[in-house]
Amino acid sequence: MNLKLLARELNLSFSTVSKALRDSHEISAATKARVLAKAKELNYQVNPLASSFRKQQSKTIAVIIPEVVNDFFGPVINGIESIAQEKGYHVLIYLTHEDMQKEQSITRLLQNGRVDGIMISLSEETSDTAHLEALQQKEIPLVFFDRIAEHIAVPKVITNDYEAALVATSHLIKHGGKRIAFLSISQNLSIVNQRMNGYLAALEKHGIEQDKNLIISCGRNEEDNLNLIRNLLVGKNRPDSIFASVEKLAVATYQVCSELGLRIPRDIKVITFSNSNMVPFLQPSLTTITQPAYEMGREAAAILFKLIEKKRHSFLPEKTIINSILVQRDSTRQLQ
Length: 336
Prior knowledge:
The chain is of the alpha/beta class. It contains 12 helices and 12 strands. It has a 6-stranded parallel sheet, sandwiched between helices. Strands 7-6-8-9-10-12 form a 6-stranded mixed sheet, with helices on both faces. The longest helix has 16 residues, at 190-205.
């Protein structure tokens, strides 16, 4: 069933049926009701692609994320979808797999009007942002979330990584931590730098001298990360606490502790940023800084649609911060 056939069934002109379906003021309420009833009877559905061509809109937005095997991005996408559905938009998900070249390729693809707006969280490898600046120059509505490019003047939705890391490190100190290691990932990512700065600020605040040997730069290779953590924990001056900047490094720490016979939290305490539903069931349960992922997705999408609809364009905040919370569990418990 298409629009022409529907018009023929109703014995109305193509334009009358089209306007009725768009709730035009030119069409009477009685005619609109008749058209909608027949459309429902014949299971007619609007073709969003054809409609968008007429309006020069795709009714589609793109979300570019580094990975899906991550308990943060799932709730973010759910939050985005909830707003997109309210607006009658489709959401296209693109994965960079932490690869800057793939990210560049995706943004080039999206410059041709395929989507009405773009939301992006950067890959670990992204050091050159020319491809993102190109989107801005073409006036494609763009919003960063979580992993952002600070210098690009578009709206950004983030969490309070610096303050949350300061609270997390202070929590470890309060529970007896004196030698606290920080497990980092890519230095290109704003979130990691903010988390490390919060960690360093907490050490200074509590009068603990920084030890560069306790800051470990991990990468994408899981086996390499396990070796780095293993070397850290078998050393003469091993840490008494570990602050993992991302969940996968906390899980790797659990694995290494099990291999080495180290007991959490008796021998070493562990804390991490995580949104996983599984952390309460780890043995012992893992203390986390939990990000408001769903809320971040909704807020970022709401801002993007204001850009698309050109509402309050010049009044949108450049940075929106939604606070994370610390959830204490057994991995940082102070034993008597």
